[in-house]
Every structure is written in structure tokens, then in C-alpha cells.
């Protein structure tokens, strides 16, 4: 949750809107004054490839496998590098068989342009999510994380995210279980900046995690 790097262009406007429209979120934002998540310039393919490798893996394991893949490709993994590899070659560097198949499927979609980053700027959030979910191993949650952290879409509400549900439960429902419907209803006040509100919800739980 570090604040190094370039602040997203819409961040300050979003913060002012959220502070004015949500009393509880206003207090949380004031706790973390000056913090934000920074814009990333990492390419779409390598971001998605790393997401596929990281699913259901420990951070240490995912990092090691990613280093192995970078070494195999001689650079950040590209469509061409993955397309030129067999499942067996990916297995040899520690990638599980299912994930190896998913990586090759990802490369196939990019090669065939059934997943085409050049079109995303003209597509709605849901259209991009639908396109990404064609790829084996990528579901709605992974697609939403990609829209938040890579495409920097400002109004994403990841209702499948356990951290978000836990934070809303803590701050708005006195720790009682909360439904996705309740979170969606509450988050109407956050529009059109649900991404930024979600980040502050996550940030508020980070202190609990390290306490």
C-alpha cells in the first residue's frame, strides 16, 4: 500500500468527493492522508501472466516461479515467448500443469486478438471483464483487480473480494456479517470513485493484518 510513484490523475478529485459523501470514509481517509496507490506501467500480458501464476500460491512460491519464467524468456514474459513453449517446458521450471495450460491459453488469446488491449480504452468496464474472462484461469475477481491496478479504472467495486467485505463489515456494520447486496447499496455513495473507496477500505485493514 505504499505511496511511491505517480499518483493517479483522478485521485484528489475522488478523495474530495468521497470525503463529502461518506462520513465514515471521511474519517478513514484522514487517517491515511497523503497515501495512495501509484500508477503502474507494467504491460497487460505480463500482468495477467503473473496473476495466473500467483493464483492459490504463496507469495514466495509465486515470486520464484516468476523469476524462473523471466529467466526462461530472457526478459519479462511476452506473448511470443509463451507461445513458443510447450506445457512440458513450463512444467520444467516449476509451473503447475494447469497453470502452464492457462498461460498458453492467455498467449493464444493475445495472438488471436480475441483479447486486445488496444481496444480497451473504448470499452466499458464490464466489456473488458467479459473479454478477460474468456481466458482460462481468469475469473471476475482477477479481471477486476486488473482493471483497478493496471487499467486504473476509477469505478470498480470488487464484491467478491473478501478484504473489502471484511472492511465494510468492520466500519459500517459493527463487525456483523455483510452481504454483497448491502455492500453494493452502501457503495452507491462512492460512485463514480468506487476504486478509490475500495483502496481505502483495504488500507484500513492493513494495520490489523500487521498488528
TrEMBL record:
A single GO molecular function term of this UniProt record: DNA-7-methylguanine glycosylase activity
GO cellular component: protein-DNA complex
Gene name for this UniProt entry: alkA
The species this protein was found in: Oligella urethralis
CDD domains recorded: ENDO3c (cd00056)
Pfam families named among the record's database cross-references: HhH-GPD
Name this protein carries in UniProt: DNA-3-methyladenine glycosylase II
Keywords assigned: DNA damage, DNA repair, Glycosidase, Hydrolase
Catalytically driven reaction(s): Hydrolysis of alkylated DNA, releasing 3-methyladenine, 3-methylguanine, 7-methylguanine and 7-methyladenine
Family matches, as Gene3D superfamilies: 1.10.1670.40, Hypothetical protein, domain 2
Entry keyword annotation includes Nucleotide-binding: no
Source taxon at top rank: Bacteria
E.C. designation(s): 3.2.2.21
Enzyme superclass (EC): hydrolase
An annotated GO BP: base-excision repair, AP site formation
DNA damage found in the keyword field: yes
Amino acid at each position: 500500500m505504499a505511496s511511491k510513484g505517480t499518483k493517479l490523475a483522478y485521485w484528489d478529485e475522488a478523495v474530495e468527493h468521497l470525503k463529502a459523501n461518506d462520513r465514515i470514509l471521511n474519517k478513514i481517509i484522514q487517517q491515511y492522508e497523503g497515501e495512495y496507490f501509484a500508477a503502474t506501467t507494467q504491460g497487460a500480458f505480463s500482468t495477467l501472466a503473473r496473476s495466473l501464476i500467483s493464483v492459490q500460491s504463496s507469495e514466495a512460491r509465486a515470486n520464484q516461479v516468476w523469476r524462473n519464467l523471466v529467466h526462461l524468456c530472457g526478459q519479462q514474459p511476452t506473448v511470443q515467448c509463451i507461445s513458443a513453449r510447450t506445457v512440458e517446458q513450463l512444467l520444467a521450471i516449476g509451473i503447475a500443469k494447469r497453470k502452464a495450460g492457462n498461460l498458453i491459453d492467455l498467449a493464444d488469446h493475445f495472438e488471436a486478438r480475441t483479447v486486445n488491449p488496444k481496444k480497451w480504452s473504448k470499452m466499458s468496464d464490464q466489456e473488458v471483464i467479459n473479454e478477460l474472462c474468456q481466458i482460462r484461469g481468469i475469473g471476475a475477481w482477477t479481471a477486476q483487480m486488473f482493471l483497478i491496478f493496471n487499467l486504473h479504472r476509477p469505478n470498480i467495486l470488487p464484491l467478491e473480494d473478501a478484504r473489502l467485505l471484511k472492511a465494510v463489515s468492520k466500519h459500517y456494520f459493527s463487525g456483523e456479517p455483510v452481504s454483497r447486496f448491502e455492500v453494493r447499496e452502501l457503495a452507491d455513495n462512492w460512485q463514480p470513485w468506487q476504486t478509490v473507496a475500495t483502496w481505502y477500505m483495504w488500507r484500513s485493514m492493513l494495520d490489523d493484518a500487521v498488528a
